[in-house]
Specification:
This is Peptidase M15A C-terminal domain-containing protein. By secondary structure, this protein is an alpha+beta fold. The chain has helices spanning about 25-35, 50-55, 80-90; strands spanning about 40-45, 70-75, 95, 100-105, 115. The chain is about 25% helix and about 20% strand. It is globular, with a radius of gyration of 13 Å. The protein binds zinc ion.
């Protein structure tokens, strides 16, 4: 698997434990989505999280599966297009947070699919 934009290291747990169990297939899909957005970066603000870190930051167990990430979508990027790209490429869940700049995307099995605004 070769990635054009993302590096696996960008998905390492943010607590300093050094663990990174992000699913490479998930990252490959994010890389393809990134490719549809020309020169606009997608910045990983949270990728894999160890269960301890996820609990500490108030997560709901999605990030420890390795199939979830929080991304900063560049200013000027059309969010609707971004969501369309996610769904087209097999990422069924996008969560947008009111008043926060990042979006959460995941493909965790048995979670509701769609766009959610929290
Ligand atoms: Zn950790």
């Amino acid at each position: 698997m070769s990635l054009t934009f993302f590096k696996m290291d960008e998905f390492t747990c943010g607590c300093g434990c050094g663990r990174n169990e992000i699913d490479p297939g998930f990252v490959a899909i994010l890389d393809k989505i990134r490719m549809t957005y020309y020169d606009r970066p997608l910045i990983v603000t949270s990728g894999y999280r160890c269960p301890e870190w996820d609990e500490k930051v108030g997560g709901k167990g999605n990030h420890p599966t390795g199939s979830a990430a929080d991304l900063l979508v560049s200013k000027g990027m059309n969010m609707y297009d971004f969501m369309q790209a996610c769904f087209a490429m097999g990422i069924p869940r996008v969560v947008v947070y009111r008043g926060k700049p990042h979006v959460h995307v995941d493909m965790v099995a048995d979670k509701p699919k769609g766009v959610f605004v929290l």
